[in-house]
Design goal:
Its main location: membrane. The protein contains 7 helices and no strands. By secondary structure, the protein is an all-alpha fold. The chain has one domain.
């Protein structure tokens, strides 16, 4: 799938598509989408695991996860919009300093802040829905935690593979890095919350 930032170039007969396309120009949408999905998945799953460490009711986990989804999606969208807008301002200023005569044409190649913000928010929501859906209909506390971890594990591998495939990066390395990072986030959140909850603090 090509974005507006992919460079359209003729492909010589003796070269493949991968040898011609510059995959570093995949555009702002790819970076925002991949980061947003992973952030949504890991952050909401970690929140739910943290609450699950001290609360056995499914309602507490779902409400916490939903609040994390809404807050995270808004935060990602705003942060991405501000970041990309600042990047665009810098690039436009640089073009003006260089005396570019076709600024309007070059502006079409700049990243779109609204597109990046929307991609971030939607991707975050998609990632966050995985642990929420996995936990919703399971009454048993231990089984619920195990199902959340299993669902998140599968999703982490899938997101890692998608990011590696679209960017033509090493698949195994990408999946392993994403998977270990997600496991660590859930384990640390669960462990620290469990420690605080069992150390005399009223929760």
């Amino acid at each position: 799938m090509a974005s507006q930032n992919d460079v359209a170039v003729p492909i010589p007969e003796n070269k493949s598509v991968d040898e011609v396309i510059d995959y570093t120009q995949r555009g702002q949408w790819l970076r925002a989408a991949v980061l947003g999905a992973n952030d949504g998945l890991v952050s909401v799953a970690s929140l739910m695991m943290g609450v699950g460490a001290v609360k056995h009711g499914v309602k507490a986990m779902i409400l916490t996860g939903f609040a994390g989804l809404v807050a995270g999606a808004c935060s990602m969208a705003i942060g991405e919009y501000v970041s990309v807008s600042s990047q665009v301002d810098v690039e436009v200023s640089q073009m003006k300093r260089n005396g570019a005569s076709n600024i309007e044409s070059q502006n079409d190649q700049l990243p779109n802040p609204f597109q990046a913000a929307a991609a971030s928010a939607v991707a975050f929501t998609i990632g966050a829905m995985v642990p929420l859906v996995a936990a919703t209909f399971i009454v048993n506390h231990e089984v619920r935690l195990a199902v959340v971890v299993a669902a998140v594990t599968v999703a982490l591998i899938v997101f890692g593979w998608i990011g590696a495939f679209l960017g033509r990066a090493p698949v195994v390395k990408s999946c392993f890095r994403v998977l270990v990072g997600g496991w660590m986030a859930m384990a640390v959140t669960f462990g620290l919350t469990k420690l605080i909850g069992t150390s005399g603090l009223s929760v």
